[in-house]
Write a structure and sequence with these properties.
The protein is mainly alpha-helical. It has four helices and two strands; from the N terminus they run H-E-H-H-E-H. The protein has two domains: about 30 residues; about 80 residues, no CATH class. The protein has a two-stranded antiparallel sheet.
Length: about 140
């Protein structure tokens, strides 16, 4: 394509739309990048994914929480329950706690994204077809 074909300033109205459609088709045929916009995301889908991701992070950090809480739980206490035993309690429940918070804040984030994307248009991403997809299309 020459530079004159890409000049959008001289194209008006419906011609501009037709020109852009031809440009996108040409880029697709040549294996170029296509720009697409994420207009909305599934709130429950994001929430489940974030919940699972944060639960996995909680499992990853579990040994560190237990190692940090272990010395405190061994301190002898004269008058009843050891105040440092709560560290062990939290360490064992951290994956569940992180998973629940990940689910809640993932849902909240997805909901807010959907609201803001209506006003601002969403996030643009560049996609390039893989070799198998471009051979089929």
């Amino acid at each position: 394509m020459s530079g004159s074909e890409l000049n959008l300033l001289g194209v008006a109205g419906g011609e501009k739309r037709d020109f852009l459609m031809q440009l996108v088709k040409s880029l697709h045929e040549r294996g170029g990048f296509l720009v697409q916009t994420i207009k909305s995301v599934g709130v429950l889908s994001v929430a489940k994914t974030m919940g699972a991701l944060y639960a996995a992070l909680g499992l990853l950090f579990l040994p560190f929480f237990l190692l940090i809480g272990l010395p405190g739980s061994m301190i002898p206490n004269q008058g009843g329950q050891n105040p440092f035993a709560g560290g062990m309690f939290f360490g064992l429940r951290a994956p569940v706690f992180y998973g629940v918070l990940g689910f809640i804040f993932g849902a909240l984030g997805a909901f807010l994204y959907n609201l803001i994307a209506k006003w601002l248009g969403g996030i643009e991403v560049q996609l390039q077809p893989t070799g198998a997809q471009s051979a089929i299309g």
